[in-house]
Specification:
The protein has 4 helices and 11 strands; from the N terminus they run αββαββββαβββββα. It is of the alpha+beta class and 182 residues long. The N and C termini lie far apart (52 Å).
Length: 182
């Protein structure tokens, strides 16, 4: 009987990692899924709360500066991170990447290539310009370029905690809206 159970478990292990992409992360920088607000504030002393948030996405949002991401997500320089908390647990991390409007497509293309070299071919590239790596622990969304004020544009890298945030990003329209709205 023990051999049968062991055989069944060994057969199921590959299925549990079938959706993972190479190098799947459990957060970004020193941020890890499930951290509390006080944990994040302890690691990043510059943490600042966001005053107005959409309660559909989180209970609270804090912005921190990650001085050196060490190449995570293909980012080599300082970046701000919006940390979304639900029930005092970190569930979403959003990284804005900005640039001049005329260069944003080139910047995004370079970013996409860096991310492909780290995480492999994305699972989804939709007609609206979103690129998605679906993971077991973390799913990553790379948005299209969004034109902002003063000849500036941005795109967003959004990381979702798949264990505590949502089970399937295609089934949760509120979380998808966050990704799409930036």
């Amino acid at each position: 009987m023990k051999k049968l159970l062991l055989t069944i478990l060994l057969l199921l292990v590959p299925l549990s990692t079938a959706c993972a992409y190479p190098g799947e992360t459990e957060g970004f920088g020193l941020l890890r899924w499930g951290m509390s607000v006080s944990d994040v504030k302890h690691l990043y002393h510059d943490a600042v709360p966001v005053k107005e948030i959409n309660p559909d996405f989180a209970d609270t949002v804090w912005v921190v500066t990650i001085p050196d991401p060490h190449g995570e997500m293909g980012i080599d320089s300082e970046v701000s991170a919006a940390c979304y908390f639900s029930d005092n647990r970190l569930t979403i991390i959003q990284l804005p990447i900005d640039g001049d409007t005329e260069d944003i497509d080139t910047i995004r293309s370079r970013q996409l290539n860096r991310m492909i070299s780290l995480y492999g071919i994305p699972d989804i590239e939709d007609e609206q310009g979103f690129t998605i790596w679906e993971g077991v622990v973390t799913s990553i969304y790379l948005s299209h370029g969004i034109v902002m004020k003063d000849n500036k544009s941005a795109f967003f890298i959004t990381l979702l905690d798949m264990q505590n945030c949502i089970k399937n990003p295609r089934e949760n329209k509120d979380k998808e809206a966050l990704v799409r709205e930036g």
